[in-house]
Specification:
binds 1,4-dihydronicotinamide adenine dinucleotide, 330 residues, globular, Rossmann fold, 35% helix, seven-stranded parallel beta sheet, 2 domains
Length: 330
């Protein structure tokens, strides 16, 4: 098959070509796939896309007219694809449902440790010869209550690691599978989780229902000084609401790997440009906020798995027209 790989980075080329063994012809394209760039898909059988490509109905209509029959996501989340429109247009959508839940869970834990022990501040201080401990006070994780929102593949791993620190684990999931959670996990309502947790970590997908799950009202239901971690999708959090809560001290620490408007920022080197997003810039001013640029998945193990699963998806769909990792409209 001829496949246009959008939002392609050096590492995408390395891992996809490594797994390809000459079976398909890839064209690696730097731009995101969106309304402005979709003409680049002309002449290809499939497009291979990532989290910040925009496959709304109009983009899908354009690429369908070019003869594109398959969208292969190199990620798990598919909130950026209008799956109903794709189905209507006869375009199959396949994804990589699981590549390394460990990678994402371990990154979420990294954010917890960094924020709690102020490692980001300590790193800079020591380099400047400032050995003062003022402002670096943390707390023992042992005995603290951790709320896990979403107990799918990643939430389970995160819960297990935090249980290993001696934390009390509360979980909420509308479709719980308690057998996979660490022993002693208490399944509770979302309200109870918000009310009792010292640390809350989001591991649920972005759906219309989950949009701004964390908002002014839900923040008001949390423990004052709560630490909030989001490695899932940016729009789970109403960013202006969290900024107000950081200003008032209601939220004590915030760790983000994702951001509502990240598609204009993340994965690019903008270090010699002015960032026009004032909301994002405000977040960067808080000493108790740590942001990483959607790198939670970024381990060698995960990239190998993404490339292998993508190859498997392409082969399965090419051979039979169906794929176990297909996404269907709900
Ligand atoms: P999963 O599909 O295995 O689990 C998600 C769980 O969330 C399911 O059990 C579902 O029932 C639950 N859920 C849905 N709505 C909920 C709600 N309102 N409250 C609580 N739980 C809810 O997904 P997985 O693999 O664990 O991934 C979780 C999310 O992590 C993905 O949807 C994706 O957005 C994000 N992700 C982020 C990455 C990164 O690099 N930052 C990489 C991979 C995934």
């Amino acid at each position: 098959m001829k496949i246009a790989v959008f939002s392609a980075k050096r590492y995408d080329r390395e891992f996809l070509e490594g797994a390809n063994a000459g079976r398909h012809t890839f064209r690696f394209l730097e731009p995101h796939l969106d309304a402005e760039t979709c003409s680049l898909a002309a002449g290809f059988d499939a497009v291979c896309v990532f989290v910040n490509d925009t496959l709304d109905a109009s983009v899908l209509e354009t690429i369908a007219a070019f003869g594109v029959k398959l969208v292969a996501l190199r990620c798990a989340g598919f909130n950026n694809v209008d799956v109903a429109a794709a189905t209507r247009l006869g375009i199959a959508v396949v994804r990589v449902p699981a590549y390394s839940p460990n990678a994402v869970a371990e990154h979420a834990v990294g954010l917890v440790l960094m924020l709690n022990r102020k490692l980001h501040r300590a790193y800079n201080r020591i380099r400047e010869g400032n050995f003062s401990l003022d402002g670096l006070l943390g707390f023992d994780l042992n005995g603290r209550t951790v709320g896990v929102v979403g107990t799918g593949r990643i939430g389970v791993v995160f819960a297990k690691i935090m249980a290993g620190f001696g934390c009390r684990i509360l979980s909420f999931d509308p479709m719980p599978d308690s057998s996979r959670m660490p022993q002693g996990t208490e399944e509770v309502s979302l309200d109870a989780l918000f009310a009792a947790s010292d640390i809350i970590s989001l591991h649920c997908p972005l759906t219309p229902k989950n949009h701004h799950l964390i908002n002014e009202q839900t923040i008001a239901a949390m423990k004052p000084g709560v630490m909030l971690i989001n490695t899932s999708r940016g729009a789970l959090i109403d960013t202006p609401a969290i900024i107000s809560a950081l200003k008032s001290g209601r939220v004590g620490a915030l760790g983000l790997d994702v951001y509502e408007e990240e598609s204009n920022l993340f994965f690019e080197d903008l270090s010699d440009r002015i960032i026009p997003d004032d909301v994002f810039s405000r977040l960067l001013t808080f000493p108790n906020v740590v942001i990483t640029g959607h790198q939670a998945f970024f381990t060698r193990d995960a990239l190998e798995k993404i490339a292998q699963t993508t190859m498997g998806n392409l082969a399965e769909w090419e051979a039979s027209g169906v794929c176990a990792n297909a996404v269907h409209a709900s």
